Amino acid sequence: xxxxxxxxxxxxxxxxxxxxxxxxxxxxxxxxxxxxxxxxxxxxxxxxxxxxxxxxxxxxxxxxxxxxxxxxxxxxxxxxxxxxxxxxxxxxxxxxxxxxxxxxxxxxxxxxxxxxxxxxxxxxxxxxxxxxxxxxxxxxxxxxxxxxxxxxxxxxxxxxxxxxxxxxxxxxxxxxxxxxxxxxxxxxxxxxxxxxxxxxxxxxxxxxxxxxxxxxxxxxxxxxxxxxxxxxxxxxxxxxxxxxxxxxxxxxxxxxxxxxxxxxxxxxxxxxxxxxx
Length: 277
Fold this sequence. Notes:
The protein is of the alpha+beta class. It folds into two domains: 2-113 and 255-266, Diaminopimelate Epimerase, Chain A, domain 1 (Roll), CATH 3.10.310; 119-244, Diaminopimelate Epimerase, Chain A, domain 1. It is 16% helix and 40% strand. It has four helices and 19 strands. The strands form two sheets. It has a 17-stranded mixed β-sheet that branches. Strands 9-10 form a two-stranded antiparallel ribbon. 43% of the residues are buried. The mean pLDDT is 96.
């Protein structure tokens, strides 16, 4: 099966352009596993429609998700490169139609619907309350305001505990650790649901963090977000009184490679289970 490997500011994806059939969850999980197959944070199928393109997205575990912002920006970049659109295209997603614009080079901006109103929550982990804001930006996010350097944030351990916390059942949540060094600057690390690990960037996480920052008066638009991968994502729009009326997210969306997935790439390999002492 032919594929393209794309990266949206560090979030990497496998893209299938108008395949004869959609992949199975088992194939997606196998292809996205790093080390034994191509490896990626997720996979999407892109198809042309009459006046738009249609994107169907799955996380690395093979389960579908309504929205992946960085993936959608990559889908738009592919549509532009294939000549399916000139400088603007509507991408039909599980979260509704989104308009993408080509800025310059590999930079793609995506216009999005306003988020849900941030909710303050404090789930207990090992007996300690973890305060944060729960926000839905197409998919759920729990935003934790980290008081110290993000270099020391326990993203893997605490992120995993919060991701499946009963307070967010049954769907679970993505988890973002954030700092606002200044009202127009954001630093962020994200633990992504479906990838079940920290990723180099998360577009919906950046938007959720900005929404939480606006609600707590920690942020003002525009905001530039620094991600773990070293990329910077720009959030612009209007948010009078801290409530988003319109906004967009822009950043790098590059095409890394194109090739063919072999039959061996879909052969699942179970993780090792070593015997106890």
